[in-house]
Design brief:
With 212 residues, the chain is α+β, with helices and mostly antiparallel strands. It folds into two domains: 36 residues, no CATH class; 156 residues. Helix content is 46%, strand content 10%. The N terminus is likely disordered.
Length: 212
């Protein structure tokens, strides 16, 4: 079986050398042999499609890892912009994985169901809940509008560092607690370590379906 498809080079089992001279364009061979461990169903995604989704998940985990490394580095060399740049990268990567595994568009529900089954993702996986991420960055403009509709005057505190530190109890919209790697949004807490651990678990389960 030979298929032509645009996929990351890191995912290739075998590559046609002539095709490889063209940027981002490769020939995959023996794809069916590579995916014999996937329990296909009639009308299901094909092997290349599985590989494409798993490769994208692997990429997003690596992006989150790099962002977390930068975030850790700010504890020794504080950089306000780098803190929030790194946090945003982690949340966006987590959100991208979440949308692959649990698509907002119901048209692709079966794809999400099959990928979660294949990658052993439990229904209570922290990545599947996008509410906090949406409030924190994705739809923050709406949260600002909603806040000022109810509170047209008063103090507005945002992007606070360590708002949950014992004895401080800073009332902030968004905050980052470097002492325990958690985010705060108007009293709600998200554990970044839990997000990163969940990503790594899925990353490990992707290894059976793509070259990492």
């Amino acid at each position: 079986m030979t298929c032509e498809v645009l996929v990351p080079a890191s995912a290739f089992l075998s590559v046609d050398r002539n095709a490889a001279r063209k940027p981002n364009r490769f020939i995959l061979s023996n794809v069916s042999d590579y995916f014999t461990n996937i329990p296909f169903k009639q009308g299901d995604m094909n092997g290349i499609q599985y590989m494409a989704f798993c490769s994208e998940i692997v990429l997003q985990v690596k992006i989150a890892r790099r962002a977390n490394e930068r975030l850790e580095a700010t504890k020794d060399n504080f950089d306000h912009i780098e803190v929030w740049c790194s946090i945003q990268s982690i949340l966006v990567a987590a959100g991208n994985i979440s949308k692959i595994l649990s698509p907002p568009n119901k048209k692709y529900k079966t794809r999400g169901d099959r990928l979660r089954q294949m990658l052993k993702v439990e229904n209570d996986c922290v990545l599947l809940d996008r509410k906090f991420r949406n409030s924190f960055f994705e739809h923050y403009d709406s949260r600002i509008d909603e806040w000022f509709e109810k509170h047209p005057t008063g103090v507005y505190i945002d992007l606070a560092m360590n708002p949950s530190f014992p004895g401080r109890n800073l009332n902030t919209h968004r905050g980052y607690n470097s002492f325990n790697n958690t985010l705060e949004f108007r009293g709600e807490i998200l554990d970044l370590d839990a997000i990163l651990i969940a990503m790594e678990k899925i990353f490990e389960n992707c290894k059976s379906y793509t070259l990492t």
